[in-house]
Amino acid sequence: MSGRRVAVIDAGTGNLRSVERAIAAAGGEPLVTRDPDVVRAAPKVVVPGQGAFESFVAGLRARDLEPALREVIAAGRPYLGICLGLQVLFDESEEHGPVAGLGLVPGKVVRFRPREHRNKVPHMGWNRVRPRGAADPLLAGIPDEAFFYFVHSYYVVPDDPAVVALTCEYEDEFTAAIRSGNLFACQFHPEKSSAVGLQLLRNFVEAA
């Protein structure tokens, strides 16, 4: 199988077609799938998701995708999580919960509670991100304070600050992306983030 083949996980939520088109534009060979055997065979996996955390987790489990994802991650293959694909990696979310996640990254998912009325929930639109820690290969060619597109009401709080790759400010600083081994996952939507989002996806497609 081509090293540019990317399995795009269909858990029943999210705009999968926009992710599929963006990966293709970045030089990848995307395959939208809900087949766990296809996921197990894929060189790279992208997990996008929008909507409710509980429904997303239920969709993964109803399609037997959770064990396939765990096998891919344990094998060290590149994983890119987008929005809920980031949040589901954590222990639990307080959205309609607590609701248990996959527990692959210690920490939790919490709701924005802005103190200022001008900061609306959900946090929606373009916002600046800043790198934290060592340079990440998926951020090569992307300016340090690039703008990415966000739409979310909840954000992740890792137990270990060392996994934070990017931060963003929405009244307070929050985690915009994490790196943990072969896992890179972001709260923003690279498929909606113009040239910088395409560069991130290109880096992922070209990753060994």
Characterization of this structure:
25% of the residues lie in helices and 36% in strands. The mean pLDDT is 94. The chain contains six helices and 13 strands. It starts with a strand and ends with a helix. Strand 1, helix 1 and strand 2 form a beta-alpha-beta unit. It has helices spanning 16-25, 36-41, 53-62, 65-74, 84-87, 194-206; strands at residues 5-9, 29-33, 44-49, 79-83, 90-93, 99-100, 105-111, 123-131, 147-152, 154-158, 164-170, 172-180, 183-186. The protein has one domain: Rossmann fold (3-Layer(aba) Sandwich). The chain is of the alpha/beta class.
Number of strands: 13
CATH topology: Rossmann fold
- For the biggest β-sheet, the strand order reads 2-1-3-4-13-12-11-8-9
- Classify the secondary structure makeup into a structural class: alpha/beta
The whole-angstrom Rg is 16 Å
Poorly predicted sequence stretches spanning 5 or more consecutive residues: none
Given the structure, what is the number of helices?
6
Structural domain count? 1
Q: Strand fraction band?
A: 35-45%
**Percentage of helical residues?**
25-40%
Intertermini distance: 14 Å
* CATH class designation: Alpha Beta
Tell me, rounded to a whole number, the average pLDDT.
Answer: 94
Regarding quaternary structure, how should these chains be classified?
Answer: single chain
Major sheet size, sense and barrel closure: 9 strands, mixed
Task: Give the CATH architecture.
Answer: 3-Layer(aba) Sandwich
What's the CATH H-level homologous superfamily?
A: Class I glutamine amidotransferase (GATase) domain
Query: What pattern of helices and strands is seen along the backbone?
Result: EHEHEHHEHEEEEEEEEEH
Overall shape: it is globular
